Amino acid sequence: MTAFVTVNGTRLEYQLIDSSQGRNDTLVFLHEGLGSVAGWRDYPAKIAAATGWRVLAYSRRGYGQSDPITGPRAVDFMHDEGRIVLPALLDQLGIDRPMLIGHSDGGSISLIHAGGTDRPIRGVVTLAAHVFVEDLTIAGIVDAKKAFETTDLRQRLGRIHKDVKSAFWGWNDIWLHPDFRAWNIEAFLPTIRCPVLAIQGVDDQYGTPAQVDAIVRGVGTKGRGLMIENCRHAPHREAEAATTRAIVDFVAGLG
Length: 255
Prior knowledge:
This protein is an alpha/beta fold. The chain contains nine helices and eight strands. α2 crosses α3 (105-116).
């Protein structure tokens, strides 16, 4: 069951799964560019059960049952999410020193939050995150646009978003904007003070292994990469067992 909280004047959908062990340690799930609370399906609950940690998942503005966006996104929309919205949400819900698990755009936002604020973070796991824009990324997003216009993708996304047009075009339009080609968040990586695990599928249609290499190189000795064979852009769905094992081991290592 989801609930709602108003953050900086925006009504956001969230789900909070209590720890089976009564712990206050919290994992925060940040969804992909077309995701939402519902888009995670039962994966947050599975990770909560496997780790014993409490889990928070929320739908960003424009996604799921949260308020729609009212205009085009700016190039730095992920910067604002990581440095302004996420801190305010965590404060509103009384969550301190979380660990972040972010998929795609959510992974990028997690890195921005960890490196661009002075808030204490236990750790970060990224699933197919981007820290710069590649030709492959743009090609994949062009393909998604075609699929939205010509296949049942619109109907499938409509199952997890109140306003599917806002969700899709808010994401697609900004990623395909010419100004977005210069988007880069590598400058945030050296200031990340917590452990980072960067997971990516070898066959990711939106990014090459250069993304993981850049994250590990930027974070330094605190970073580790994991490339998963026979996996594309959604490791938690396409290689669930390997991804879950890596996350559980990472969480256990945090103490």
